[in-house]
Amino acid sequence: xxxxxxxxxxxxxxxxxxxxxxxxxxxxxxxxxxxxxxxxxxxxxxxxxxxxxxxxxxxxxxxxxxxxxxxxxxxxxxxxxxxxxxxxxxxxxxxxxxxxxxxxxxxxxxxxxxxxxxxxxxxxxxxxxxxxxxxxxxxxxxxxxxxxxxxxxxxxxxxxxxxxxxxxxxxxxxxxxxxxxxxxxxxxxxxxxxxxxxxxxxxxxxxxxxxxxxxxxxxxxxxxxxxxxxxxxxxxxxxxxxxxxxxxxxxxxxx
Length: 255
Description:
Layout: H1 8-18, E1 25-28, H2 32-43, E2 49-52, E3 56-57, E4 79-80, H3 83-91, E5 97-100, E6 104-105, E7 111-112, E8 115-117, E9 122-125, H4 132-138, E10 141-145, H5 171-174, E11 182-187, E12 191-195, E13 202-207, H6 213-218, E14 231-232, H7 238-248
Parallel strand pairs: 1-2, 1-5, 5-10, 10-11, 13-14
Antiparallel strand pairs: 3-4, 6-7, 8-9, 11-12, 12-13
């Protein structure tokens, strides 16, 4: 399939969906994570347990929810509780993956969705944390989905809304967060990225179809770790696109 047959948003959804494993729990946020979870349930992970901030646990995503608290997040669910129960579930270590976005990300996976500029006199005031701090603090592995350019991939975020690896190795543990938790993958419109096991710095894992390593580097405001062997992500399959367009987002709310 030619790259012109799909758009960047569809590619991001498909890449994120492939990261969702069958039989796992995933804390799902508004937007692309919802589409990715629905696609995963229909493609390869029928036993994925999506968990939503306002209490829906294990819903079957037959129709796309419009927000994390609306009725479709409770469709045929295993449980319907509330935000305190969900956050406590994450604190107890029962949620494996958390899916987040942000306005800025730094080399250690710290996310900013609060302000651009000085906190007390910001250039832009953003929506804030919601449950993002809890997701990034307590889920075992965080997957971040965001557009890729130098304004977003920055040397230091203006405000840490959601902790990544903070200042580097050992910093999460010093802050009181559980060992073994933290950022796992970053899905951008250019590449798939991860974090070096020892240094905790962002690492380029695979470029998207038609994207070069040089393009990724040019659009990143800090130095990435570049492996000797570079993988390439597979484009969306015809079946992924069919399900995404005809079943997941029939009304084209996102794609």
